[in-house]
Amino acid sequence: MAERLILDTSVLVSAERGRLDLAAAAGDDADAALPAIVVAEYLTGVHLAVTEEQGTARREFLDRALQALPIETYTMRVAERHSELLAHVRRSGTIRGAHDLIIAATALATGRTVLTTDARAGFDQLPGVTARLVVLERSG
Fold this sequence. Notes:
Strand content: 5-15%
Structural class: alpha/beta
CATH class: Alpha Beta
CATH topology: Rossmann fold
Low-confidence stretches: none
Helix content: 40-55%
CATH superfamily: 5'-nuclease
CATH architecture: 3-Layer(aba) Sandwich
Largest sheet: 5 strands, parallel
Strand order of the largest sheet: 3-2-1-4-5
Distance between the termini: 37 Å
Number of helices: 6
């Protein structure tokens, strides 16, 4: 059975920069998707590009990714999981990125594993969230 994945923004950025082979990292038979918040985060990088060429290249990469990957939207089910995670981090006093909690909630609501290169996000420390960390090889 194919592993059901939600891709973190760090995975998209690493793939766009040539530091990660997305197909190899996800696995040949993976069922991968993008949470809508990841699209927003990535598009922010398109808008903040230093040069027009950089912005165009980023947008073209995103367009190719969107042709291959479905988007998981912020549904009522995601909102319910999001509220549970928000309550958990407030009770525990841990600080989490707002967007990371939405990514985690999307994974929970859709029965997917978060694929990330960001160990500091601590997705796997959230209740019920499964995450797989992809370690990037150091360049140079």
